[in-house]
Amino acid sequence: LQNAELGKRAPRWIRDNEVTMCMKCKEPFNALTRRRHHCRACGHVVCWKCSDYKAHLEYDGNKLNKVCKDCYHVIIGCTDSEEKKKKGILEIEAAEVSGNSVICSFLQYMEKSKPWQKAWCVIPKQEALVLYMYGAPQVYDTPRSADLPHSFKLTQSKSVHSFAADNEELKQKWLKVIHLAVKGETPECQNE
Question: What is the residue range of the signal peptide feature (predicted)?
Answer without folding.
Answer: none
